[in-house]
Write a structure and sequence with these properties.
Helices cover 62% and strands 11% of the residues. The protein is mainly alpha-helical. InterPro entries: HTH_17, SinI_DNA-bd. This is DNA binding domain-containing protein, excisionase family.
Length: 130
């Protein structure tokens, strides 16, 4: 899984990338290149992953932003599918990692919304007592 280090990409190359995606019609490729240029301009390193690529636990952990130890707990719980290579090495399909990441982000969003709603209820309760 190649990593594109944002600090190693000259701003002139990012400008060329921006010029290129502006030439494209609206669509998935234009959106992808635009997101790439925004990430690089923002100093964010980027991973390029093919849909057909299988990832090592270390690579999957990087994409998910968790430790490798925590990833093994996720795999052992059955929350993320994997297969074994050789006698014990694990591999995870890139689409499965991305789907798990999307579920994880959605769950975080739901929890944040619930917490915000609880704050609103607390404020309403305090207003009632005043």
């Amino acid at each position: 899984m190649p990593k594109l280090d944002a600090s190693s990409v000259p701003t002139t190359e990012i400008t060329v990338l921006e010029d290129a995606f502006h030439q494209l019609p609206d669509g998935a490729l234009r959106t992808t290149l635009e997101n790439l240029s925004l990430a690089l301009r923002g100093g964010q390193d980027t991973f390029v992953v093919s849909e057909k690529e299988d990832l090592t636990p270390a690579e999957a952990a990087k994409l998910l932003g968790v430790s490798r130890t925590h990833l093994y707990k996720i795999l052992d719980s059955g929350a993320l599918a994997y297969y074994v290579v050789g006698s014990r090495d694990r591999r995870i399909a890139a689409p499965d990692v991305m789907a798990y990441r999307a579920r994880m982000l959605e769950m975080r969003k739901s929890h944040a919304e619930a917490a915000a709603h609880m704050d609103e209820l607390d404020d309403l309760a305090l207003d009632e007592f005043n």
